[in-house]
Regulatory protein TetR
Amino acid sequence: MITSPSSVRRSERSRRATLEAALELCTEKGYGRVTVEAIAARAGVSKKTIYRWWPSKGAVMLEAFAGMLAGATPFVDTGEIEADLRTHVNGIVKLISTPPYGPAYAGILSEMHHDDELARAVREQLVGPRVEAAVERLRRAQEQGQIPEDADLPLTVEMLYGPVYYRHVLRKPAQDEATVAALVAHVLRSLSAGPRPAGEGGAQASRGEG
Protein backbone atom coordinates (compact mmCIF):
# COMPACT_ATOMS: atom_id res chain seq x y z
CA MET A 1 0.00 0.00 0.00
CA ILE A 2 1.35 3.41 -0.97
CA THR A 3 1.18 5.99 1.80
CA SER A 4 0.19 9.45 0.66
CA PRO A 5 2.13 12.53 1.83
CA SER A 6 -0.97 13.76 3.66
CA SER A 7 -1.21 10.44 5.54
CA VAL A 8 2.44 10.69 6.54
CA ARG A 9 1.89 14.22 7.83
CA ARG A 10 -1.19 13.13 9.77
CA SER A 11 0.73 10.21 11.27
CA GLU A 12 3.62 12.43 12.29
CA ARG A 13 1.27 14.97 13.85
CA SER A 14 -0.45 12.18 15.77
CA ARG A 15 2.88 10.76 16.94
CA ARG A 16 4.10 14.12 18.18
CA ALA A 17 0.76 14.87 19.81
CA THR A 18 0.96 11.54 21.64
CA LEU A 19 4.47 12.18 22.94
CA GLU A 20 3.56 15.70 24.07
CA ALA A 21 0.37 14.48 25.74
CA ALA A 22 2.29 11.79 27.64
CA LEU A 23 4.75 14.31 29.03
CA GLU A 24 2.03 16.84 29.91
CA LEU A 25 0.07 14.22 31.82
CA CYS A 26 3.21 13.03 33.60
CA THR A 27 3.76 16.57 34.88
CA GLU A 28 0.15 17.00 35.93
CA LYS A 29 -0.59 13.60 37.45
CA GLY A 30 2.74 11.88 38.07
CA TYR A 31 4.01 8.93 36.06
CA GLY A 32 2.11 6.26 37.98
CA ARG A 33 -1.29 7.86 37.37
CA VAL A 34 -0.88 8.28 33.63
CA THR A 35 -2.71 5.73 31.47
CA VAL A 36 -2.68 4.98 27.77
CA GLU A 37 -6.37 5.90 27.70
CA ALA A 38 -5.61 9.33 29.13
CA ILE A 39 -2.76 9.87 26.67
CA ALA A 40 -5.02 8.94 23.76
CA ALA A 41 -7.75 11.31 24.94
CA ARG A 42 -5.34 14.20 25.43
CA ALA A 43 -3.62 13.62 22.07
CA GLY A 44 -6.87 13.20 20.16
CA VAL A 45 -5.94 9.76 18.85
CA SER A 46 -7.35 6.31 19.47
CA LYS A 47 -5.94 3.89 22.00
CA LYS A 48 -5.55 1.44 19.12
CA THR A 49 -3.33 3.94 17.31
CA ILE A 50 -1.02 4.24 20.31
CA TYR A 51 -0.68 0.48 20.67
CA ARG A 52 0.07 0.20 16.96
CA TRP A 53 3.16 2.37 17.49
CA TRP A 54 4.19 1.54 21.06
CA PRO A 55 3.77 -1.60 23.18
CA SER A 56 3.21 0.24 26.48
CA LYS A 57 2.95 3.55 28.27
CA GLY A 58 6.60 3.19 29.26
CA ALA A 59 7.61 2.93 25.60
CA VAL A 60 5.75 6.16 24.80
CA MET A 61 7.49 7.95 27.68
CA LEU A 62 10.86 6.51 26.66
CA GLU A 63 10.62 7.87 23.12
CA ALA A 64 9.55 11.28 24.41
CA PHE A 65 12.42 11.40 26.92
CA ALA A 66 15.11 9.98 24.63
CA GLY A 67 14.34 12.51 21.93
CA MET A 68 14.75 15.40 24.32
CA LEU A 69 17.87 13.96 26.01
CA ALA A 70 19.83 13.73 22.79
CA GLY A 71 19.12 17.33 21.87
CA ALA A 72 19.59 18.82 25.32
CA THR A 73 22.85 17.08 26.28
CA PRO A 74 25.17 16.99 23.25
CA PHE A 75 28.78 15.88 23.49
CA VAL A 76 30.49 19.13 22.58
CA ASP A 77 34.16 19.13 21.61
CA THR A 78 36.00 22.35 22.35
CA GLY A 79 39.29 20.51 22.72
CA GLU A 80 39.13 20.66 26.54
CA ILE A 81 37.70 17.42 27.88
CA GLU A 82 37.16 18.61 31.45
CA ALA A 83 35.16 21.66 30.37
CA ASP A 84 33.19 19.62 27.85
CA LEU A 85 32.29 16.97 30.42
CA ARG A 86 31.12 19.66 32.83
CA THR A 87 28.87 21.08 30.12
CA HIS A 88 27.49 17.64 29.32
CA VAL A 89 26.85 16.50 32.87
CA ASN A 90 25.30 19.85 33.83
CA GLY A 91 22.94 19.42 30.89
CA ILE A 92 21.88 16.00 32.13
CA VAL A 93 21.34 17.25 35.68
CA LYS A 94 19.23 20.15 34.45
CA LEU A 95 17.10 17.94 32.21
CA ILE A 96 16.29 15.22 34.73
CA SER A 97 15.63 17.82 37.43
CA THR A 98 12.98 19.58 35.33
CA PRO A 99 9.38 18.44 34.81
CA PRO A 100 8.21 16.66 32.80
CA TYR A 101 11.47 14.93 31.93
CA GLY A 102 12.64 14.15 35.44
CA PRO A 103 9.38 12.50 36.55
CA ALA A 104 9.07 10.70 33.23
CA TYR A 105 12.56 9.21 33.45
CA ALA A 106 12.15 8.23 37.09
CA GLY A 107 8.97 6.40 36.12
CA ILE A 108 10.67 4.65 33.23
CA LEU A 109 13.55 3.50 35.46
CA SER A 110 11.08 2.14 38.00
CA GLU A 111 8.87 0.38 35.48
CA MET A 112 11.70 -1.30 33.59
CA HIS A 113 12.42 -3.47 36.64
CA HIS A 114 9.25 -5.47 35.98
CA ASP A 115 8.97 -4.95 32.21
CA ASP A 116 11.68 -6.84 30.34
CA GLU A 117 10.70 -5.37 26.97
CA LEU A 118 10.94 -1.82 28.30
CA ALA A 119 14.27 -2.61 29.97
CA ARG A 120 15.64 -3.85 26.66
CA ALA A 121 14.34 -0.76 24.88
CA VAL A 122 15.98 1.52 27.46
CA ARG A 123 19.31 -0.20 26.90
CA GLU A 124 19.02 -0.19 23.11
CA GLN A 125 17.42 3.21 22.49
CA LEU A 126 18.80 5.30 25.34
CA VAL A 127 21.68 3.89 27.35
CA GLY A 128 23.62 2.18 24.58
CA PRO A 129 23.76 5.09 22.13
CA ARG A 130 24.55 7.60 24.89
CA VAL A 131 27.39 5.46 26.28
CA GLU A 132 28.81 5.00 22.77
CA ALA A 133 28.74 8.76 22.19
CA ALA A 134 30.38 9.42 25.56
CA VAL A 135 33.10 6.84 24.93
CA GLU A 136 33.79 8.35 21.51
CA ARG A 137 34.24 11.82 23.04
CA LEU A 138 36.57 10.37 25.68
CA ARG A 139 38.50 8.49 23.01
CA ARG A 140 39.18 11.72 21.14
CA ALA A 141 40.48 13.22 24.37
CA GLN A 142 42.61 10.12 24.84
CA GLU A 143 44.10 10.56 21.37
CA GLN A 144 44.90 14.17 22.27
CA GLY A 145 46.77 13.04 25.39
CA GLN A 146 44.23 14.47 27.84
CA ILE A 147 43.32 11.02 29.18
CA PRO A 148 45.78 8.16 29.85
CA GLU A 149 46.13 5.57 27.08
CA ASP A 150 45.17 2.71 29.38
CA ALA A 151 42.03 4.35 30.77
CA ASP A 152 38.92 2.16 30.79
CA LEU A 153 36.57 4.46 28.89
CA PRO A 154 33.25 2.59 29.43
CA LEU A 155 34.02 2.48 33.16
CA THR A 156 34.83 6.19 33.08
CA VAL A 157 31.35 6.85 31.66
CA GLU A 158 29.77 4.87 34.49
CA MET A 159 31.81 6.84 37.03
CA LEU A 160 30.52 10.10 35.57
CA TYR A 161 26.88 9.12 35.18
CA GLY A 162 26.54 6.97 38.29
CA PRO A 163 26.39 9.76 40.90
CA VAL A 164 23.90 11.72 38.78
CA TYR A 165 21.41 8.89 38.44
CA TYR A 166 21.99 7.71 42.01
CA ARG A 167 20.77 11.06 43.28
CA HIS A 168 17.92 11.13 40.78
CA VAL A 169 16.58 7.67 41.63
CA LEU A 170 16.79 8.30 45.38
CA ARG A 171 15.19 11.74 44.95
CA LYS A 172 18.12 13.48 46.56
CA PRO A 173 18.84 17.13 45.70
CA ALA A 174 20.40 17.51 42.26
CA GLN A 175 24.04 18.49 41.94
CA ASP A 176 24.84 22.15 41.46
CA GLU A 177 27.52 23.29 39.03
CA ALA A 178 30.24 23.26 41.70
CA THR A 179 29.42 19.67 42.61
CA VAL A 180 29.43 18.64 38.96
CA ALA A 181 32.81 20.32 38.48
CA ALA A 182 34.18 18.43 41.49
CA LEU A 183 32.76 15.14 40.13
CA VAL A 184 34.33 15.61 36.70
CA ALA A 185 37.68 16.66 38.17
CA HIS A 186 37.71 13.69 40.56
CA VAL A 187 36.91 11.17 37.79
CA LEU A 188 39.60 12.57 35.50
CA ARG A 189 42.17 12.54 38.32
CA SER A 190 41.31 8.94 39.11
CA LEU A 191 42.26 7.89 35.58
CA SER A 192 45.87 8.86 36.32
CA ALA A 193 45.92 7.50 39.87
CA GLY A 194 47.12 3.99 39.16
CA PRO A 195 49.78 2.26 41.32
CA ARG A 196 53.28 3.70 40.97
CA PRO A 197 56.30 1.50 40.28
CA ALA A 198 58.13 0.39 43.44
CA GLY A 199 61.24 2.27 42.37
CA GLU A 200 59.31 5.56 42.51
CA GLY A 201 58.22 5.22 46.12
CA GLY A 202 55.06 3.27 45.37
CA ALA A 203 55.97 0.32 47.58
CA GLN A 204 56.77 2.49 50.59
CA ALA A 205 53.67 4.61 50.09
CA SER A 206 51.45 1.54 49.90
CA ARG A 207 52.80 0.37 53.30
CA GLY A 208 52.50 3.82 54.83
CA GLU A 209 56.30 4.05 55.28
CA GLY A 210 58.13 7.34 54.95
The CA atoms of residues 23 and 29 lie 10 Å apart. DSSP finds ten helices and no strands in the chain. Confidence is low (pLDDT under 50) at residues 1-7, 196-210.
